[in-house]
Amino acid sequence: MADGTETRSIVIVGGGTAGWLSACVLAARIGEVATHPVDITLVESPDVPTVGVGEGTWPTMRCTLRQIGLDEAAFLLECDAAFKQGSRFDGWRTGAADDRYWHPFVPPPAVDSRALVAGWQRHGGGRAFADAVSPQPAIAALDLAPRQRDMPGYAGALNYAYHLDAGKFAALLARHGAGRLGVRHVRDHVVAIVRSATGDIAAVSTRDHGAIAGDLFLDCTGHASLLIGGALGSGFVDRSATLCNDRALAVQVPVGPTTPIAAQTISTAHEAGWLWDIGLQSRRGIGCVYASRFMDDDGAAAVLRRYLSRAAPGIDYGTVPVRQLRFRSGHRERFWVRNCLAVGLSAGFCEPLEASAIVLIELSLDALLANFPQDRTAMDVQARRFDRLFHYRWDRIVEFLKLHYVLSRRDEPYWRAQRDPDTIPPRLAEQLMVWREQPPSQADLPHVDEIFPPASYHYVLYGMDHPAPAIPPATGEALAEPLTLLRQRTRALAASLPTQRAYFDGLRRAAAQGPASSSGLR
Predict the structure, then answer these.
(1) 235 annotated binding-site participant
(2) Which superkingdom (predicted)?
């Protein structure tokens, strides 16, 4: 498109979660920011499958689904989804049988970080940090749902996100986007990228539908990165010197109708990586993440087999299909080049330790809409601003993931290599020195919309037994009453909330009786 031309058409290239979530969010919200009508077209290859190994979201997804007009109960049923209340980390400190800590979604009481740590030390009753300052570990440990079914959709007694089937989620978004939000859906192969004289992308050429022109293009083509990387030449910033995991084996394990549904992602460390375990209504997604420098594929298969024999007894490893995934942690040098923005895997990927993939899609769309380019005039300025923001966010993600490793005291070669000072980002190394004298605070994380707030660092630092700073005990007196009330609330929630399995059994029964019963709006 020529300079000054209005942004009247957005072409999204690629489907899956990134493409269809982008299409739905833009179609639902573009009227809030655009001064003129904007058409949304999604071009999707009919032959590219969605990577559906089980996926976790952040609590932000509740707002996103509400904004695009999806009913929560319908979403939960159609995507085989379950509630996620944070992550549990097993074996990360020492590998001992009782080695466990939590990163819940409910933050600690809202007090100064020094008062928080001093209050935990003085009034926490000797309990682990997360157990003392949040009700959520106790609730999730009981496999309880974070809400009653008669609560309004997307409301909860505790903060929560979702575990879901990524393939079913993309299919639901496609039906919703094309059927209710007016997204034009083109199923065809992109055979060429057409550039204008200015260097912008003018159109994508398809095999059967010809050229599909647009004013703004979203690259949702995954690791292939056909537009931003292939046509526009944005290079790849390799972060594998910091995050060395590069492979995963994934399986889907069916579960019976009475099997408890875990209320958290379970991340279990092993000698050369970690395993994920994600509970859905009808199955569990289990995977072994590893670094090929320290473990070969057969070794990873043996780790996965041992985990299944312990965590999913009765499952014959030889009967479940195993998918191998290969990846490189890193991101694009530029995320927005000329009139093309990369969203999802085309922008980058890091190991899924803190489920950052889908939230980065949401954040990318929020940033695009907050500074929507009405025409071509200011688009390059908006692109530079976007790039600065997302370089900052990717740096914080890499640092936060690395934090889980550098605090470990495990002594296998892989874990010693993870603690090598040469692999630790300089800013993180500095912060770790500072955090021996004072706990993480907003001063360390100055952005208004930090991707990980200070509370997340508290949960990992003190969950991994990082030395807490020496703080005068009197500083923590302000937390004495809040912690007492928190313990009372935890007991009340444990007595009143249903198990996840009971919640979804009731939801399915209500759905069978009619949509009014299952809407969650009674």
Answers:
(1) no
(2) Bacteria
